[in-house]
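To close the section, here is one more complete example, presented without commentary so you can practise reading it yourself. The ligand is manganese (II) ion.
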Amino acid sequence: MAKALKKNNPKKELRVDGERLYKALHDLGEVGAYKDESTGIVGVNRLALSEADGAGRRKVVSWMKELGLSVSVDQIGNVYAERRGETDLPPVMMGSHIDSVPTAGRFDGCLGVLGALEVMRTLSESGLTTKRPLVAAFFTEEEGCRFGTDMLGSAVATGRIPLEAAYALKDAQGLTVKGELEKTGFLGPEAVGRRKPHAYLECHIEQGPSLRHDGFEIGVVTGVQAISWQELTIVGKSAHAGTTPMEFRKDAGVAAARINLKLREMIASGMFGKGMRATMGVNRPHPGMVNVVPGRVVCTVDLRHPEDGFMEEVERELVAFYKQVEKDEGVSISWRQTARTAMAPFSDEVQSVVEGAANELGLSNTPILSGAGHDAQEWSRACKTAMVFVPGEYDGISHNPREFSTLKQCADGVNVLLGAALTLTED
Ligand code: GLV
Ligand code: MN
Ligand code: MN
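Output:
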């Protein structure tokens, strides 16, 4: 049970209920659950604005309403639940996302949303009111797996992506964001851009091995590295695999393979600074038959870099390489940028507040740069922002059904979220 232990300083002694938080993560994880064929492990598939995401959204909204919070939905389907404060000063917002990649675990995003709700529950149980209001929020299509660009809801709410451009985005079946918002019942009336929080906090699993490996209980997130996504269409010439001499071929599959290897070579060269990461996560040959030379490939490139200057160099080098591949392989390559965010540094002040909250709880902590994209990077343009990371088991594997953080790891993170939120609400 969450308790206020000391009458003279009840807020400092508050602790969230880890069992209740973990049960909520489990219950939400049932929505969109599926069994991974290769491992038999149960994962989550809750692609943004799918039926499962709609069901997950309704579940979380019902929990928000049970807590007596006032819930509103904005024009891009972001959901905000507000707990009144003693004043009408701008609120402290806590949030994340509940949409998932198609092969997810139960923690990515959900910890931040259900953690924010657990903070609200803990405060309600103890009968405490904060000076500023508190908001628990979840944002639409953080993953970018369905409509092609990540942090969509928070990017629209904070002005990086225009609403109409977001509405027009299509999934692989040609269904639009606007249509799917209508279908799921989350095309809300609240004007985007209306929210101007005092501060934004997000608790999230690290999604990597560092905290666990280095023995830290909490990561104080310093910012999010730059992200660049491209979608490429490579057109060559489809032909018979047995009869077409090699010198007659225009093999789009070979062109894609060369680009993928080029990414590795660029990293190995050491010429693009430290920390460059690159992934070709989609590679769809057409027609995709054992005995047909691929005439067309649609593939993606995901680039990450902690330094904006190096990211630009990487992008320039790649585009020049596409020209080389066109020449060498006799193919044509067209590409479009589907997502692009610069390195997003977080507020020193809010990082100190997070660090202070972790220290207060006796939790070992370290500064850490986020490798993954997060809604917090969008809110960091609108208000002072930082994040709390918790470690993950199995080398912090994520975007995978094996993603796992223990009850203690989750509760620690949300206790830090609570402590930090309480400090910021008194500002
Ligand atoms: C978000 O999950 C990302 O791709 O970084
Ligand atoms: Mn996430
Ligand atoms: Mn994710």
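Once you have examined the tokens, check your reading against these statements. The chain has two domains: 3-225+343-425, 227-341. Residues 227-341 form a domain with the Alpha-Beta Plaits fold (CATH 3.30.70.360).
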